[in-house]
Amino acid sequence: MSSAALFIALAVFGLGTGAAAGLLGVGGGILMVPFLTLAVGLSQHAAEATSLVVVLPTAIVASVALRRRGVGDLGLALRFGLVGALGGAAGALLALALPAATLRVVFAAFLTVVGLRLVHDGVRA
Amino acid sequence: MVARDDAMTDRALHVSTPLPEPDVRRPLDLQLIAIGVAGGILSGLLGVGGGVVMVPLLVLWAGYRQREAHAMSLGAIVPISVAGILTFGIAGRVHWLDAVALALGAVVGARLGAGLLVRIDERVLKILFGCFLVAAALAMAVRA
Hints:
The structure holds two protein chains of two kinds. Chain A is built from five helices and no strands. Chain A is mostly helical. Chain A has a domain at about 5-70. Chain B has one domain (about 30-144). Helices cover about 75% and strands about 0% of the residues of chain B. Chain B has helices spanning about 1-15, 30-45, 50-60, 65-85, 95-120, 120-144. In chain B, helix 2 packs antiparallel against helix 3 and helix 3 runs antiparallel to helix 4.
């Protein structure tokens, strides 16, 4: 793919990722990292780093839009996120000591249980 | 009478105006701190943003409505991703042209997604998010 075509393809993928992130309340890394490794051919580390740089403006734009509409409490979210950021540093250190594959399986099980519970709640409500 | 009809029609036409929801204002308590730390740790451990763990905890544990939880998660992701950028040692690893292209699309998409979040039915949102989590779990299991 030419670099211009790749640029456009990435912008289009970013549009979809940003929309999903703004709706689902996530940063979008879970969508971007696989795309950057599998479709663009970046290494895992490069994909995670590049994705993180995109997550920041995505979350800022969505947060500002939601604050303007009165959904949520941005000041409170920023404060507990700041505390969480310290946890993130601890997590990065832990990641070096723990087996990543095992963690992924445990986390995948957690997501499955929670996901099914939310679908169940939504259908029943 | 006429004035009241006009007012009602006016309200009915403004479908984008969010329905009033219970006030979510609360102090920064230990529960929210624990959720932020859980999101931050998983973000550091697995390289994902932390939203996939914070949103379920905000809804099922802290009692936030789905819509409000998504907004809170997005706000918390801002400092968490700043910390990630500062500590990850990523300066040399970022592919900046790719990042700029993705970000140009993503900021436009984020406005669209947030606009939809304001209006979407709470139940539909819950089901959508649940399906998204299960799909994320499958993708993660495949990678593991």
